[in-house]
User: What shape does this take?
Amino acid sequence: MLLEKTTRMNFLFDFYQALLTDKQRSYMQLYYLDDHSLGEIAEAYEVSRQAVYDNIRRTEAMLEEYEEKLQLFEKFQNRQKIITKLSKSMTDIQADSKEVLSLIEQLKEWD
Assistant: This one.
């Protein structure tokens, strides 16, 4: 569960980091990408551990709101699934060309 949340936050951060403040971006990068503890971040910024925790939780909620509205991560995941199916179909000698064309059309629709 924790790994899933970390992976999700990393993806959301990748997609939406430009919408964050410098401090939010820095805290998220240190916490999720560089695996720093709340205490280490608090010490580096000379703030309380609670302040770092609160900032990270608010930023996580913001990232989830951005995803709810813009759905960039969901669209990315859908494209990845289609690309995987398309690759499998292309390598299969018995590939049904209608299925391949259908998968290509689905990819076009998500952009």
